[in-house]
Amino acid sequence: MNMNRVHRRFCASPKWAEYVRSEMLPQELEGLDLGDDVLEIGPGPGLTTDVLRTRAPSLTALELDEALAGALAARMPAQTVEVVNGDATQMPFEDDRFSAAVSFTMLHHVPTVELQDRLFSEVHRVLASGGVFAGSDSRPGLSPFFYLLHVGDIKNVVDPGTLGARLRGAGFGKVEIGTRPKRVWWRAVA
Q1: What's the whole-model pTM score?
Q2: How many CB atoms lie within 10 A of CB 59?
Q3: How many angstroms separate the CA atoms of 27 and 36, rounded?
Q4: pLDDT tens digits, residue range 132-151?
Q5: Are the C-beta atoms of 49 and 40 separated by less than 8 Å?
Protein backbone atom coordinates (compact mmCIF):
# COMPACT_ATOMS: atom_id res chain seq x y z
CA MET A 1 0.00 0.00 0.00
CA ASN A 2 1.32 3.42 -0.86
CA MET A 3 0.33 5.90 1.85
CA ASN A 4 2.11 9.05 2.94
CA ARG A 5 2.85 9.67 6.65
CA VAL A 6 -0.03 12.10 7.18
CA HIS A 7 -2.46 9.62 5.63
CA ARG A 8 -1.13 6.77 7.78
CA ARG A 9 -1.46 8.91 10.89
CA PHE A 10 -5.04 9.91 10.01
CA CYS A 11 -6.04 6.27 9.36
CA ALA A 12 -4.78 5.33 12.83
CA SER A 13 -6.33 8.33 14.60
CA PRO A 14 -9.02 8.30 17.30
CA LYS A 15 -11.22 10.42 15.00
CA TRP A 16 -11.08 7.79 12.23
CA ALA A 17 -11.56 4.98 14.78
CA GLU A 18 -14.75 6.62 16.02
CA TYR A 19 -16.05 7.04 12.45
CA VAL A 20 -15.29 3.38 11.67
CA ARG A 21 -16.90 2.14 14.90
CA SER A 22 -19.99 4.36 15.02
CA GLU A 23 -20.85 5.06 11.38
CA MET A 24 -19.05 3.18 8.62
CA LEU A 25 -19.07 -0.44 9.81
CA PRO A 26 -22.58 -0.36 11.31
CA GLN A 27 -23.92 0.90 7.97
CA GLU A 28 -21.91 -1.45 5.76
CA LEU A 29 -22.53 -4.56 7.85
CA GLU A 30 -26.16 -3.93 8.78
CA GLY A 31 -28.18 -7.12 8.42
CA LEU A 32 -25.21 -9.21 7.25
CA ASP A 33 -24.37 -12.60 8.69
CA LEU A 34 -20.63 -12.91 8.10
CA GLY A 35 -20.49 -16.55 9.15
CA ASP A 36 -17.68 -18.15 11.10
CA ASP A 37 -14.56 -17.60 8.96
CA VAL A 38 -14.12 -14.02 7.69
CA LEU A 39 -11.39 -12.52 5.52
CA GLU A 40 -10.57 -8.83 5.90
CA ILE A 41 -8.65 -7.38 2.97
CA GLY A 42 -6.35 -4.44 3.62
CA PRO A 43 -6.89 -3.68 7.30
CA GLY A 44 -4.07 -1.12 7.44
CA PRO A 45 -3.58 -0.19 11.10
CA GLY A 46 -6.50 -2.42 12.07
CA LEU A 47 -9.22 -0.05 13.25
CA THR A 48 -11.74 -2.04 11.21
CA THR A 49 -10.20 -5.26 12.55
CA ASP A 50 -10.93 -4.09 16.10
CA VAL A 51 -14.65 -4.02 15.26
CA LEU A 52 -14.74 -7.08 12.99
CA ARG A 53 -13.11 -9.41 15.52
CA THR A 54 -16.17 -8.98 17.75
CA ARG A 55 -18.45 -10.17 14.90
CA ALA A 56 -16.74 -13.37 13.75
CA PRO A 57 -15.36 -16.40 15.59
CA SER A 58 -12.42 -16.52 13.17
CA LEU A 59 -10.99 -13.49 11.34
CA THR A 60 -8.06 -13.46 8.93
CA ALA A 61 -6.62 -10.03 8.06
CA LEU A 62 -4.64 -9.90 4.81
CA GLU A 63 -2.33 -6.86 4.68
CA LEU A 64 0.15 -6.04 1.90
CA ASP A 65 2.30 -3.62 3.90
CA GLU A 66 4.77 -5.65 5.96
CA ALA A 67 5.17 -3.04 8.73
CA LEU A 68 1.40 -2.60 9.13
CA ALA A 69 0.86 -6.38 9.14
CA GLY A 70 3.54 -6.83 11.81
CA ALA A 71 2.15 -4.09 14.03
CA LEU A 72 -1.38 -5.46 13.69
CA ALA A 73 -0.28 -9.02 14.46
CA ALA A 74 1.53 -7.80 17.56
CA ARG A 75 -1.60 -6.25 19.03
CA MET A 76 -4.29 -8.76 17.97
CA PRO A 77 -5.19 -11.84 20.02
CA ALA A 78 -3.85 -14.76 17.97
CA GLN A 79 -6.71 -17.03 19.02
CA THR A 80 -9.28 -14.86 17.18
CA VAL A 81 -7.32 -12.97 14.50
CA GLU A 82 -4.72 -14.33 12.09
CA VAL A 83 -2.76 -11.57 10.37
CA VAL A 84 -1.21 -12.53 7.04
CA ASN A 85 1.27 -10.35 5.16
CA GLY A 86 0.31 -10.89 1.53
CA ASP A 87 -1.08 -9.60 -1.73
CA ALA A 88 -4.86 -9.69 -2.26
CA THR A 89 -4.35 -10.09 -6.01
CA GLN A 90 -2.53 -13.41 -5.32
CA MET A 91 -4.04 -14.71 -2.10
CA PRO A 92 -2.25 -17.50 -0.23
CA PHE A 93 -5.54 -19.21 0.73
CA GLU A 94 -7.28 -22.31 -0.54
CA ASP A 95 -10.41 -22.14 -2.68
CA ASP A 96 -13.83 -21.91 -0.97
CA ARG A 97 -12.37 -21.28 2.49
CA PHE A 98 -14.11 -18.15 3.83
CA SER A 99 -17.74 -17.55 4.73
CA ALA A 100 -17.36 -13.81 4.01
CA ALA A 101 -14.81 -11.27 2.85
CA VAL A 102 -14.79 -7.57 3.62
CA SER A 103 -12.79 -4.56 2.50
CA PHE A 104 -13.09 -1.01 3.77
CA THR A 105 -11.48 2.13 2.34
CA MET A 106 -8.51 0.35 0.79
CA LEU A 107 -9.56 -0.45 -2.77
CA HIS A 108 -8.51 3.00 -4.03
CA HIS A 109 -4.94 2.09 -3.04
CA VAL A 110 -4.86 -0.72 -5.62
CA PRO A 111 -3.01 0.98 -8.50
CA THR A 112 -4.92 -0.21 -11.58
CA VAL A 113 -8.40 -1.33 -12.57
CA GLU A 114 -6.85 -4.61 -13.77
CA LEU A 115 -5.35 -5.30 -10.34
CA GLN A 116 -8.63 -4.38 -8.64
CA ASP A 117 -10.40 -6.85 -10.94
CA ARG A 118 -7.80 -9.52 -10.09
CA LEU A 119 -8.48 -8.83 -6.40
CA PHE A 120 -12.24 -9.33 -7.04
CA SER A 121 -11.53 -12.65 -8.79
CA GLU A 122 -9.32 -13.79 -5.91
CA VAL A 123 -12.03 -12.88 -3.39
CA HIS A 124 -14.53 -14.92 -5.39
CA ARG A 125 -12.10 -17.86 -5.49
CA VAL A 126 -11.55 -17.98 -1.71
CA LEU A 127 -15.22 -17.50 -0.77
CA ALA A 128 -17.41 -20.53 -0.15
CA SER A 129 -20.49 -20.79 -2.36
CA GLY A 130 -23.05 -18.32 -1.05
CA GLY A 131 -20.39 -16.32 0.80
CA VAL A 132 -20.71 -12.56 0.74
CA PHE A 133 -18.13 -9.94 -0.25
CA ALA A 134 -19.03 -6.63 1.39
CA GLY A 135 -17.23 -3.36 1.64
CA SER A 136 -16.97 0.28 0.84
CA ASP A 137 -14.49 2.70 -0.60
CA SER A 138 -14.09 6.40 -1.28
CA ARG A 139 -16.18 7.89 -4.07
CA PRO A 140 -14.88 9.96 -6.98
CA GLY A 141 -15.28 13.73 -6.67
CA LEU A 142 -14.75 13.96 -2.93
CA SER A 143 -13.63 16.97 -0.96
CA PRO A 144 -10.28 18.69 -1.43
CA PHE A 145 -9.28 17.16 1.95
CA PHE A 146 -9.44 13.66 0.41
CA TYR A 147 -7.08 14.70 -2.39
CA LEU A 148 -4.70 16.51 -0.03
CA LEU A 149 -4.62 13.49 2.26
CA HIS A 150 -3.55 11.37 -0.71
CA VAL A 151 -0.70 13.54 -2.04
CA GLY A 152 1.94 11.07 -3.16
CA ASP A 153 -0.42 8.12 -2.55
CA ILE A 154 -2.01 5.77 -5.02
CA LYS A 155 -5.64 6.85 -5.37
CA ASN A 156 -7.43 4.82 -7.99
CA VAL A 157 -10.99 5.62 -6.94
CA VAL A 158 -13.68 3.11 -7.97
CA ASP A 159 -16.47 4.20 -10.32
CA PRO A 160 -19.81 3.16 -8.75
CA GLY A 161 -21.31 3.01 -12.26
CA THR A 162 -19.00 0.19 -13.37
CA LEU A 163 -18.43 -1.64 -10.07
CA GLY A 164 -21.42 -3.98 -10.41
CA ALA A 165 -20.37 -5.22 -13.84
CA ARG A 166 -16.81 -5.68 -12.64
CA LEU A 167 -17.92 -7.79 -9.67
CA ARG A 168 -20.19 -9.89 -11.91
CA GLY A 169 -17.23 -10.29 -14.30
CA ALA A 170 -15.25 -11.76 -11.39
CA GLY A 171 -17.93 -14.42 -10.94
CA PHE A 172 -20.24 -12.94 -8.33
CA GLY A 173 -23.96 -13.57 -8.77
CA LYS A 174 -26.22 -11.24 -6.83
CA VAL A 175 -24.54 -7.83 -6.65
CA GLU A 176 -25.82 -4.75 -4.85
CA ILE A 177 -24.10 -1.35 -5.22
CA GLY A 178 -24.99 1.89 -3.49
CA THR A 179 -23.55 5.25 -2.55
CA ARG A 180 -23.38 7.28 0.63
CA PRO A 181 -22.16 10.88 0.87
CA LYS A 182 -18.50 9.86 1.24
CA ARG A 183 -18.32 6.37 -0.22
CA VAL A 184 -19.55 3.67 -2.56
CA TRP A 185 -20.59 0.38 -0.93
CA TRP A 186 -21.18 -3.12 -2.27
CA ARG A 187 -22.46 -6.55 -1.38
CA ALA A 188 -21.83 -9.43 -3.74
CA VAL A 189 -22.65 -13.11 -3.32
CA ALA A 190 -20.30 -15.85 -4.55
Answers
A1: 0.91
A2: 25
A3: 20
A4: 999 999 886 666 666 556 66
A5: yes
